[in-house]
Amino acid sequence: MKYIFYLAGIILMTFGISFTILSEFGTSPFDAVLVGLSVKVGLTVGSWEIILAILLIGCNSALRRQRPEVLGLATAFITGIGIDLWLFLLSNVINPEHWYSQMICFIAGLIVIGAGTAIYLHTNVAPIPVDRLTLILQELTGTSLFFSRTLIYFVFLFMAMLLNGPIGIGTVLTVCLGGGILHLFMPPIGKALDGMLTNPNTSLH
């Protein structure tokens, strides 16, 4: 059952990511890096998700002084395919022209990303490397998800600026609110999933 929630969370998260990219209001710093690499170097956004995942797996392994978490690459692979698929399906559907429609599209995407990330993270199957890094930093610093997530956002924001990625007001909102949204979703989603995973029969009613 947890694998169903795991896949559902990733599908929901990548759906939200595609919304923020197509909103043209700015993306998260990490997604801005992916888009910037896609435009400057080539390959799809999802392909760069997988490539960067390999690098981050090595980084996470060094921080925890453990073997590389290869399963994280599987999650990144699914995420990369999900991003490319949603962008393909929605590119002709979502074309916000005015700032307020762009903002609505972005905010919707940001909320969906937070919910999807919280769902698949709570299954503890195999977080994508950037999310595993968030959890590692939380553990090493003894702080909240908000702090560790925001710290990572600032690092990727600098990289996105170097790559001329799609940085905008939405990027600033992600840095300021992304970690907080994830932090807000984790407790209620965790409680709900624990109830359904512990009592799978009741989840069908």
Beta fraction of the residues?
A: under 5%
**Count of distinct strands:** 0
Tell me the overall shape: globular
Distance between the termini: 15 Å
Task: For this entry, give a set of tags.
single chain; 205 residues; mainly alpha; 78% helix
Q: How would you describe this protein?
A:
By secondary structure, the chain is mainly α. Helices cover 78% and strands 0% of the residues. It has one domain (2-199). Helix 1 runs antiparallel to helix 5 (99-123) and helix 3 runs parallel beside helix 6 (129-141).
Concise summary:
This protein has 205 residues and is mostly helical.
Give the topology, please.
Layout: H1 2-23, H2 29-40, H3 45-64, H4 71-90, H5 99-123, H6 129-141, H7 145-162, H8 169-198
Helix pairs in contact: 1-4, 1-5, 2-3, 2-7, 3-4, 3-6, 5-8, 6-7, 7-8
